[in-house]
Amino acid sequence: MRPEVVLVVAVAENGCIGHHNELPWHIPEDLKHFKTLTTGHAVLMGRKTYQSIVKRLGKPLPNRYHLVLSRDPGWRPDAGHEDQVQSVDSIEQALWQAEMRNEPTLMVIGGAEIYRQTLVLADRIELTEVLAQVPGDAFFPSLHLPDWQREVLSEGQTAEGLGYRFCRLSRRRD
C-alpha cells in the first residue's frame, strides 16, 4: 500500500523557502516541530538538501531513513551513512522503497523541486507559515487552495519578533 505522502515545509508570505541552500530564518520552535513530525519516518529530499543537512549537523538526521533524489546516477551518500541514506532516481522509486520498508508515511522535506514534483501526490502538508516577506532563491509551488482543508494548530513568535503559524493542510477528497 502506498505510504501517505506528507510535505513538511516552512514558507514565508512571499513563498520563499530558502536562500543559498539554507533556511532564511531561525525559528527554534519550527526546528523542534520539524523534529517531532519527522522522527521515526522515512524522509525524502533532494541531494542539495541532504548535503546542507550533513554540512550543518555533520551527519544525516537522527532516527529517520533518508531517501535522496538525485539526477546524478552515480551519486552515493557520504561514507558511513549508507545504513541510513539511500539514493533514488525518481519519486516513484522513493515511494516504492518506502512501501518496501513498510513505512506508513513518507515525509517530503525539500527542496523546491522535490516539493514541485510531489505536490500532486501529497495527502497532507505540515506547513509553518513564516509571517514575513523574505528574500530568497527557492520558492514553494503555488497551491490551489480549494483542494485543501486548512487547520491552524498554533501560533507563536520568536524572541526576535518573527511571527509564525503551524498549520495542517489536508487534501480534500470530495
The third-level CATH topology is Dihydrofolate Reductase, subunit A
**What percentage of the residues does DSSP assign to strands (E)?**
25-35%
CATH C-level category: Alpha Beta
Number of domains: 1
Unreliably modeled segments? none
Architecture in CATH? 3-Layer(aba) Sandwich
Q: Helix count?
A: 4
What share of the residues lie within helices?
A: 10-25%
Task: Supply database-style keywords.
174 residues, alpha/beta, Dihydrofolate Reductase, subunit A, eight-stranded mixed sheet, globular
Question: Layout of helices and strands, plus pairs?
Answer:
Elements (H helix, E strand, L loop, with lengths): L3 E9 L3 E3 L9 H11 L3 E5 H11 L7 E5 L15 E4 L2 H10 L4 E4 L3 H7 L5 E7 L7 E2 L8 E10 L5 E9 L3
Parallel strand pairs: 1-6, 1-7, 3-4, 3-6, 4-5
Antiparallel strand pairs: 2-8, 7-10, 9-10
Question: If you had to describe this structure to a student in words, what would you say it looks like?
Answer:
The strands form 2 sheets. The protein has an 8-stranded mixed sheet, sandwiched between helices. The chain has helices at 28-38, 47-57, 91-100, 112-118; strands spanning 4-12, 16-18, 42-46, 65-69, 85-88, 105-108, 124-130, 138-139, 148-157, 163-171. The longest helix has 11 residues, at 28-38. It is 22% helix and 33% strand. It has one domain (4-102, 112-171): Dihydrofolate Reductase, subunit A. It starts with a strand and ends with a strand. The mean pLDDT is 95. With 174 residues, it is of the alpha/beta class. A hairpin with a 5-residue loop joins strand 9 (148-157) and strand 10.
